[in-house]
Specification:
By secondary structure, the protein is an alpha+beta fold. It is about 35% helix and about 10% strand. The longest helix has 12 residues. The structure holds zinc ion.
């Protein structure tokens, strides 16, 4: 057998080494140029070995659906303005009286009722208490994201679409 590195005839033991991913037979002097190949057991011995974890076609497990419901948040209803006005009038309260009841200011109540001002969470709670109404509803994060396109996490598909549209 010839050493594939120096070309010398190998007398005695030859060494199988890897140099730049190529397997070569080397003599004792040249074996240091590469990494010695560790002998593998016969193929038959590998039977019953556990399947590789990264098997092709195996997709990462989807997040359980439960996660969506864990993120349900109370969100102000869209017709909060109309609901407040209707409930206030049903109770024969003036906007000034509602302002007093909610420790707010009459111009704030008026703006809220016209839909010009989104009340803070604290004021929403006070109005709900004062008028005995509900102004929030549980909205899943996923649904919220879908409605407000901006905050939605982009998928790979979206990115490709954006890229294509940008190249137009
Ligand atoms: Zn050699």
């Amino acid at each position: 057998m010839q050493c594939e590195i120096c070309g010398a005839e190998i007398r005695g033991k030859s060494f199988r080494i890897i140099v730049d991913r190529a397997e070569l037979d080397a003599c004792d002097k040249c074996k240091g140029f590469g990494k010695e190949v560790t002998p593998r057991g016969p193929a038959g011995m590998r039977r019953g070995a556990p399947a590789a974890s990264g098997a092709p076609g195996s997709m990462p497990a989807r997040r359980p659906r439960r996660d969506v419901f864990d993120q349900i948040k109370d969100e102000l209803v869209e017709d909060y303005a109309a609901r407040i006005k209707k409930a206030r009038e049903a109770k024969n309260l003036t906007d000034e009286q509602l302002a007093v009841k909610t420790q707010s200011k009459v111009n704030i109540i008026r703006k809220v009722e016209r839909g010009e001002l989104v009340p803070e969470d604290a004021l929403v709670k006070k109005i709900e208490m004062a008028l005995d109404i509900k102004l929030t509803e549980g909205v899943a994060e996923a649904e919220r994201g879908g409605r407000k396109g901006e905050s939605r996490v982009m998928t790979l598909g979206d990115l490709i679409k954006v890229k294509r549209e940008g190249n137009r």
